[in-house]
Amino acid sequence: MNRLAFRSEDFLAGADDYGVSGWLPDEAPIAMPVQEFDSTVVVSPVATTPRRIALRRWLLVVLTAALTSLAAVTPWILYSRHGFDPLELVGFGLFLVLIGSISCWFANAAIGLWVLTTNREQDDLDFAPHPPAPATRTALLMPLYNEDAHTALARLAKIDAGLARLGVSDAFDLFVLSDTNKAPALMTEQAAFAGLRLRAHSQAFYRHREKNTEKKAGNITDWVRRFGGAYDFMVVLDADSTMAGETLLRLVDAMERNPRVGLIQTAPVIVKASTLFARVSQFSVRLYGRVAAAGLAWWTGSEGSYWGHNAILRTQAFAEASGLPCLDGKRPFGGHILSHDVVEAALLRRAGWACHVTAALDGSCEETPPTLTDFIRREHRWCQGNLQHMALLSSTGLSFASRTQLFMGVLAYVASALWFSALVVGLAIELQYPVDWSSFFYFLNPQFSPFMLASLLAGVLLMGPKVMGAALVLSRPRERRAFGGGRRVVSGMLAEIAMSAILAPILMVANTVSVVKIMSGQDAGWHAQQRDADGITWGDAFRSMRWQLGAGLAFVAALSFRPDLICFFLPIVGPLLLSPVIAVWTSRSASGKAFARRGWLVTPSGDEESAAPMVIHGPARPNPLADDAKVRALRALQNA
Fold it and tell me: Half-sphere exposure (CA, 13 Å, Cβ side) for 624?
């Protein structure tokens, strides 16, 4: 028995001997030089740059400023009656930053609703409904890092089958780019790939790195430098990505017709959610995400962002422009860039390539962390990656639009810390005054006042984009029926708003803790994502929610001196004190099914397919397993 035993490092070191070396094509090297951020480059318009793009951006600025000013009038009146004290000045400053970001979100959604209701989502990039067969070669890249290989490669096989159905398999090659460093996962991964390779209609290749240098960005960079010269385009996927064959054809056709476009980023929807937490994310993205993406695409124009997956890139342009340097200093702020995607898009744009986000294509999907604790763990890593971007905000080598999007990414996480600080400052201000029980009963007998006006406006700004997304679906009979009718759309929206209100304080504390840890020098690390789970233990819930419980108890202690404010703080303190219960409840598939039985948070089926028809360019590729020899080989492999 001892002779059969082996160490994990022996298997990892000998991965090539396991047959991996025969799963690679001939190398086609391409240079990918490391870039400098302070290299000054004049970004000039390209053919797909919208006319009057500056006016589009000024409209967003004016709308945001107007809404922010309107919301700021009330606190300004309240505080200026007797003059601002230092705490009130701090509170007002925090309020301006927070209400400004919410106003921008609302304005962006309003623009997106207008774009979609007037059918302007293809004004900048006109996607052909029936594109011809590709005249170029495209590589589909799926990076893996200690993933569930069978599930991930099943998604890749589905993409392959969609391309075969359209008769265009010869124009696409599949690449599995493995950074897996755990021997059991690697053995499973390579066995699963052997099965995929036998079944695939397109050519399928596999490359394994012993060290995952620079994480996912380094994984893609290694492929570009070794094999990128053989491919005009590359489509980057995540382990949980799926894309319809029609969507891929339209992307390739758009790249072929627009030779100065370097990147097109689709807006993926979430699919296959089972737990209650995942269903909340799935419903919100499906109902509201398109409105937000359409607004973003409209004002960014040819200077859009990149989200790291479900996007097509021009290989030569990416190689020439997007080689990432290491940031100065130690981690968490120095070293390799974790949130590499938006930086790569900024470098592409600096080099004169257009980068577009589009809300015009369906059939682009991803999955989401199944539990609240898994989501928080992923957010911690993303928080570090976005905070790294603070060092790039003053870079002279990036366009203003690119730096604006970097800043918005930073603010997305810092806003949680600002919200928490605003609550603490607001409570500290109130603790200077005596108990006023009339405020406790305010909700039973509300009166029109500056406070009520500010509250209503804040509610409109927060929930407005959700209402806009629902209004868009309700205005389209086909989509309304796909959701199960107008009643289900409205009830689902109300359920999502309620669940988001419950989860918001928990995520606020989680992101605040992440910001504080990272600012104090703690590295978030890089761990494999949990993509499938059904329930967490009570022990894990209490350990994960210890900061939320601590914050809730601290608020309770402070409110003991002003019990009349309990009604105002209950929407914050209640979820924090119940956070372990909420984490367990939302992590269960049974909870998600219970909502679905009531018609809540139900999304249309078939999002993984394109709703637009497509011309088949030739006979569907035959199933490779029709060959008896391949069938016997696959069975031998599975029984080994």
Answer: 19
447 in helix, strand or coil? coil
Say what the pTM is.
0.91
Strand partners for 364? 243
The residue assigned the tokens 């009130």 is 88
Find all residues with CB under 8 Å of 189, minimum gap 6, and list them: 144, 147, 149, 176, 178, 180
Q: Using CA atoms, how far apart are residues 79 and 390, in angstroms rounded to an integer?
A: 33
Contact present, 242 and 158 (Cβ < 8 Å): yes
Q: How far is CA 567 from CA 439, 451, 633, in A?
A: 9, 15, 68
Element (H, E) at 208: strand 203-208
ω into 50 cis (within 30 of 0): no
Instruction: Name the DSSP class of 332.
Output: T
Indicate the helix (H) or strand (E) that contains 312: strand 311-314
DSSP-derived 3-state class of residue 144: strand
Parallel, antiparallel, or unpaired: how do β-strands 261-265 and 354-357 relate? parallel
**What are 48-59's pLDDT values in tens digits?**
889 899 999 999
Give pLDDT tens digits for 201-244: 999 999 999 888 888 999 999 999 999 999 999 999 999 999 99
**SS3 sequence of 49-65:** CCCCHHHHHHHHHHHHH
How far, in whole angstroms, is CA 456 from its chain's centroid?
A: 30
Instruction: Report how far apart, in Å, the C-alpha atoms of 59 and of each of 62, 108, 550 are.
Output: 5, 10, 43
- pLDDT at position 395 is 82
Q: What's phi and psi for 203, nearest 5 deg? A: -70, 135
Q: In DSSP terms, which residues pair with 327 in a beta bridge?
A: 335
Distance CA 528, CA 518 (A): 20
* Greatest extent of the chain over all pairs of C-alpha atoms, in Å: 88
Half-sphere exposure at residue 115, Cβ-oriented, CA atoms within 13 angstroms: 26
| Residues in contact with 10: Cβ distance below 8 Å, sequence separation at least 6, in sequence order | none
Residues 6+ apart with CB under 8 A from 485: none
Nearest alpha-carbon partner for 161 in 240, 235, 243, 239: 243
Beta bridge partners of 303: 355
Dist. CA 318–CA 355, nearest whole Å:
11
The residues with which 264 forms a beta bridge, in sequence order, are 312, 356
pLDDT digits (tens, 9 = 90+) for 9-60: 444 444 444 456 679 999 999 999 999 887 766 667 788 889 899 999 999 9
Count, residues in the chain:
640
Question: Which CA distances in Å does 133 have to 57, 167, 271?
Answer: 37, 9, 28
Residues 6+ apart with CB under 8 A from 109: 288, 291, 292, 295, 464, 465, 468, 469
Q: Which helix (H) or strand (E) holds 520?
A: none
Strands 138-144 and 233-236, how do they pair?
Answer: parallel
